[in-house]
Design brief:
The complex is a heterodimer.
Chain A: E1 4-7, E2 10-13, E3 18-25, E4 31-37, E5 44-50, E6 53-57, E7 64-70, E8 73-79, E9 87-94, E10 105-106, E11 110-114
Parallel strand pairs in A: 2-11
Antiparallel strand pairs in A: 1-3, 3-8, 4-5, 4-9, 5-6, 7-8, 9-10, 9-11
Chain B: E1 4-7, E2 10-14, E3 19-25, E4 32-38, E5 45-51, E6 56-59, E7 62-67, E8 72-77, E9 86-92, E10 104-105, E11 109-114
Parallel strand pairs in B: 2-11
Antiparallel strand pairs in B: 1-3, 3-8, 4-5, 4-9, 6-7, 7-8, 9-10, 9-11
The chains are: A mainly beta, B mainly beta.
Amino acid sequence: DTEVTQTPKHLVMGMTNKKSLKCEQHMGHRAMYWYKQKAKKPPELMFVYSYEKLSINESVPSRFSPECPNSSLLNLHLHALQPEDSALYLCASSLSGGGTTYEQYFGPGTRLTVT
Amino acid sequence: GENVEQHPSTLSVQEGDSAVIKCTYSDSASNYFPWYKQELGKGPQLIIDIRSNVGEKKDQRIAVTLNKTAKHFSLHITETQPEDSAVYFCAAKRDSGGSNYKLTFGKGTLLTVNP
């Protein structure tokens, strides 16, 4: 089973709201990722967690705050977003990242609209 | 950093024909090359990948070839079916260095299979 689940599927929020995106995998993967995808573009890496520690932050604005409570869960906390942050937010996971490349599996994404 | 070029950006074929999508990469240290299929409203799905110690890999109707010398790799889909219609992304990654986790994606190819 290579399933990564994400909730919610759709989210509409105002620029003053605080919301969270959730991601879960039960494959025993120890690397988890957040990507942002705009229409007709490839996914852009935002954050990587390895063994529940933040490993990569691709210079993402602080209005996006990631959290990895345990090895199966990944959250993305959103606050004071801008309309240009509207996009598909994808979570992915892989067995591990250090030293060896393993396959990355993506979830279905959360379609975020900021009004 | 790595740069991945993908061609064509759109491809239209008749059902039953073959489709070929080509990618070139710039970093000779890249050694892992996955292909993702993304249907409308869904997350990217890993369909096949190849590592630099292999020149070709097949899985039923899909195959990937890699030419390390020329730094290009291709996706071949035979006997195309309407359900193959989607956006296809190639990507490249290397095991070593600070970008250990980072996939670099091509810009995508919209494949349309006409019945």
